[in-house]
Amino acid sequence: MLVIDDLKARVDAEDGDGREILKGVSLKVPAGEVHAIMGPNGCGKSTLSYVLSGRDGYEITGGSMSFEGQDLADMEPEERAAAGVFLSFQYPVEIPGVPTLTFVKEALNAQKRLRGEEEVPAPAFMKLAREAAAQLSISNDMLKRPVNVGFSGGEKKRMEIFQALMLQPKFLILDETDSGLDIDALKVVADGVNALRNEERGMLVITHYQRLLDYLKPDVVHVMAAGRIQETGGPELAHKLEKEGYDKYAGEAA
User: Fold this and answer.
1) Domain extents for the chain?
2) What is the 3-state secondary structure (H, E, C) of the chain?
C-alpha cells in the first residue's frame, strides 16, 4: 500500500537552512497493517509525515515514495488527500471563524469531487457526524465551534480522529497523536483509531512512547534514528525501547 524506498529529504533552503533530515528511509506498510515508528526527538519522524502528506518547506533529494502504485511526489497535497492519505497533526491548527462541521463537510465533499463521486447530502452528513462524535465523546457544542479554537490538547486530538472517522481515508498517518493526552483522553482517541482498523486500511503511527501502542497494538514497530530506520521488529520492540531508551541507536547511527 505505502512503499518508501531510500527516501531522502531536507528542509527547503528558502524556508530553513537546507539540512538533510531524512537520510535514506525505507519501509513498506501493506493494507490492513498498523506500523509504528518510534525514535528520539529530531530523528526525522515528523519530517517523514510532512513529506508523505506534501507539506510545504521540504525538498525530496533522493529515493521514492508511492501509495497504491502512485508516485506521491508527483501529487499535490489535495490529490494525496483525495487518494486517501490522511495526516493527524502533532499540533492541530486553529481556524478561527470556521465552524468545525462546516470545515469537515467541505473537506469531505471536496475530496469526493476530486474522485468524481457524488457529494454527501446534508441529512446523511449530519447522521454520520452524530455517530462519529458519540464514539469520541464529542459534544454538539464542540462541533459548532470554530475548528480547534479554545479546545484543550485532548479535545484537539479527538477532533483529528473525528475528521478521520468522517473522511474514512485509506491510509492514516498519526503524528504523535498521544502528545499531551491524559490517560482517559488517550483511551478515547485510541478507541477511535481502532474503530478505523480494517483489512483495506493501513496506518503509520509516530510516537515517542509505548503507552499508545498498548492500546493500538501495532503489527510492526520501526526504530528511527538519525534520519533512517535502524531496526524493525514486532510489538515487543516497543517494550524493549521503553526499558532501554534510544542511546544504542544514536551510537549505531554515528
Assistant:
1) 2-93+169-253
2) CEEEEEEEEEECCCCCCCCEEEEEEEEEECCCCEEEEECCCCCCHHHHHHHHHCCCCEEEEEEEEEECCEEHHHCCHHHHHHHCEEEECCCCCCEEEEEHHHHHHHHHHHHHHHCCCCCCCHHHHHHHHHHHHHHCCCCHHHHHCEECCCCCHHHHHHHHHHHHHHHCCCEEEEECCCCCCCHHHHHHHHHHHHHCCCCCCEEEEEECCCHHHHHHCCCEEEEEECCEEEEEECCHHHHHHHHHCCHHHHHHHC
The predicted pLDDT at position 132 comes to 93
Which residues lie closer than 8 Å to 168 by C-beta, 6 or more apart?
196
Look at residue 108 in the predicted model and tell me its pLDDT: 94
d(CA 118, CA 28): 32
pLDDT confidence of residue 232: 95
**Which pLDDT score, from 0 to 100, does residue 254 have?**
44
pTM of the model: 0.89
Q: Round the average pLDDT of the chain to a whole number and report it.
A: 90
Low-confidence ranges of the chain (pLDDT < 70): 13-17, 250-254
pLDDT, position 17 = 66
Please tell me the predicted confidence (pLDDT) of residue 15.
Answer: 56
Domain 2-93+169-253, architecture per CATH? 3-Layer(aba) Sandwich (3.40)
